[in-house]
Each structure stands twice: as structure tokens, then as C-alpha cells.
From TrEMBL:
A GO CC term attached to the entry: cytosol
GO molecular function, one term: RNA methyltransferase activity
Keyword Methyltransferase: yes
Protein name, as recorded: TrmH family RNA methyltransferase
Length: 180
């Protein structure tokens, strides 16, 4: 039996912050709409860095860097991942569609696509919309989305933490795109 050994930070061979800024990004963005928890915001920054998202849009009352609670969980990703604060999420959705993005609301809704059945198109850009921790994605945004994507759940709870959902969707997207 092989005994595994933890890899050192040097062996991980991660990009420096400067290298990251110049590195090509994957064709997706996150849209955070009215996210109350700054720790969730920081966690999405960290996830966005890990999967090289193009950008994060911080909408409505979602907090923005610099803030100690965002920085605490972002671990520096708040300085490397591109972001923009936008008050009007519906205006942003229209803008992203005009820029060629497929807008994907992460929400449990009638006619939603289960994550395992989602097949991203190779040369398509995606905007994944994550909603408020209590109310989810705004109903008007759901109605404007091109796709409603649902992460299947098998326990007693009806939702996942917003930053956990971001991580699941980013990994699923990247795994499927790299496999193509």
C-alpha cells in the first residue's frame, strides 16, 4: 500500500498574483445578487480564483472589497479576481446577454435543469447567478435567465450555502469543459 504524502506549497507550483492576472480565464462569471454574508462573498472570490473565473459581479446590497470579512475568506483573491459592483441586477442581466453570455440562475424552479444534465457549450460564455441566502435568486432574474440550474440534493434541507453552490457549479462547469 502506498502511503500518501502531503504536497508542499512549493510543489503545488501555483501562479503568482502577477501571473494569475495575465493568465487566460475560463468563460464564466459569477453574479452575486444581494448576498448578505461578507464571508460568502470572500469565499466566492477564492473559488473564482481557483477556477479562473473571468469576473465577479457584486449586485445590490452585496458587499465589496476592501473589507476585512471578505479578505479573511478570500485569502487575497479579492485582489486578483476582477470584480464590479452593479446596483441593478436586471440591467446587468440584460447587459450580459447583449455581450453574448448565457445567463444561468442557480435556483430550484419549475422546468429547471439538474446540474448533471447541464452540458456547457465549448465556446459559450456563462453568467452564473447566485441569490440571497434567504430568498434565493430574485424572481425577475429567474424569469430573465436563459437556464435555471438546480443542484440535486438528497437530504432534509432545501438549500445549500451560496458559496458551496458556487464551488459545486464552478467545478462541474470546468470538469465538463475540460473533458470536451
Amino acid at each position: 500500500m502506498i502511503s500518501p504524502r502531503k504536497v508542499s506549497m512549493e510543489e503545488l507550483n501555483r501562479l503568482s498574483a502577477d501571473e494569475y492576472l495575465l493568465a487566460p480565464k475560463h468563460s464564466f462569471v459569477f453574479v452575486l445578487d444581494d448576498i448578505r454574508s461578507l464571508n460568502n462573498v470572500g469565499s466566492v472570490f477564492r473559488t473564482s480564483d481557483a477556477f479562473r473565473a473571468e469576473k465577479i459581479y457584486l449586485c445590490g446590497l452585496t458587499g465589496t472589497p476592501p473589507h476585512r470579512d471578505i479578505t479573511k475568506t478570500a485569502l487575497g483573491a479579492d485582489t486578483t479576481v476582477a470584480w464590479e459592483h452593479v446596483l441593478d441586477v436586471l440591467g446587468l442581466v440584460a447587459r450580459l446577454k447583449a455581450e453574448g453570455y448565457t445567463v444561468v440562475a442557480l435556483e430550484q424552479a419549475e422546468g429547471s435543469t439538474k446540474l448533471q444534465n447541464f452540458t456547457p457549450q465549448l465556446n459559450q460564455k456563462y453568467a452564473f447567478v447566485l441569490g440571497n441566502e434567504v430568498f434565493g435568486v430574485n424572481e425577475e432574474v429567474v424569469s430573465q435567465a436563459d437556464i435555471c440550474l438546480e443542484i440535486p440534493q438528497f437530504g432534509t434541507k432545501h438549500s445549500l450555502n451560496v458559496s458551496v453552490s458556487a464551488g459545486i457549479v464552478a467545478w462541474d462547469y470546468i470538469a465538463k469543459v475540460l473533458k470536451s
